[in-house]
Amino acid sequence: MTFKERDFVLVEYTMRVKDTGEVIETTSEDVAKSSGIYREGEVYRPRLMIIGEGRYVKGFEEAVASSEVGEEKTIDVEPSKAFGERDPEKVRILSLRELAKLNIIPEPGKTIEIGGAIGVVKSISGGRVVVDFNHPLSGKTLVFTYKVVKKLEDPVEKIKHLIARRSRRINIEGLNVKISQDMIKVEIETPEEILLAEDLQIFKKAVAEDIFKYFPEVKQVAFIDSFFRPQ
């Protein structure tokens, strides 16, 4: 069985740089700890991939789309189907004075943003700053070790994973989602993990937009914020 566009699939994976073996991203807590990229408070679990959405690099998504549930694979993804080749023209030399006008204090290794473009400061010398606006993984072949865990069919389960992918602190098992019988209204109890987050309204809007995109019959998404008396 292969998957078609807009199918919801759960995938376990680890992404490495082929040349160095450096782990860039993983769904495994053990791998995260052993490779030094573990984040306290993050919930490590299979991630949602919606086929055709383009949220993952093209080569990885194509491989998952042609896989079977339960199948484990290791694949190489060339730069052309990952983050592209390095472009020398994206390495720019800027003046310290120019950056000062933008309230940017450059330091080697620091990430800066100019006009919507994100770059990394490579060096500073004689009032000149070399900034690389290539993606950090451009020009690199990536290795994905992955397993297709499940294809989601239940609308409630799909929505729970749409919610959870917006914050890796959310425990899916604790989510409370209700869909009306006519599929017009979705009620979501705001996850306790993010109830006091500063960007909560942005989170809610993003989740609602995801639901509207993949569930065209839904007309309303309502969030319920609940606070309980301390014991």
Instruction: Characterize the overall form.
Output: globular
Low-confidence stretches: none
Number of domains: 3
Distance between the termini: 51 Å
Quote the CATH topology of the largest domain.
Chitinase A, domain 3
Amount of beta strand: 25-35%
Overall pLDDT level: 95
Structural class: alpha+beta
Q: Give the helix level as a range of percent.
A: 10-25%
CATH class of the largest domain: Alpha Beta
Rg over alpha carbons:
21 Å
Number of E-state strands: 12
Continuous helix count: 5
| SSE order | EEHEHEEHEEEEHEEHE
CATH architecture of the largest domain: Roll
* Biggest sheet statistics: 5 strands, antiparallel
Question: What would you say this structure looks like, in words?
Answer:
By secondary structure, the protein is α+β, with helices and mostly antiparallel strands. 20% of the residues lie in helices and 31% in strands. The protein has three domains: 100 residues, Chitinase A, domain 3 (Roll); 45 residues, Thrombin, subunit H, CATH 2.40.10; 78 residues, Alpha-Beta Plaits (2-Layer Sandwich). Strands 1, 2, 3, 4 and 9 form a five-stranded antiparallel sheet that branches. The longest helix is centred in the C-terminal third of the chain and has 15 residues.
Q: Would you spell out the secondary-structure blueprint of this structure?
A:
Layout: E1 8-17, E2 23-26, H1 29-35, E3 47-50, H2 58-65, E4 72-77, E5 91-95, H3 96-101, E6 111-114, E7 117-125, E8 128-132, E9 142-152, H4 155-164, E10 177-179, E11 185-189, H5 200-214, E12 220-224
Parallel strand pairs: 11-12
Antiparallel strand pairs: 1-2, 1-3, 1-9, 4-9, 5-8, 6-7, 7-8, 10-11
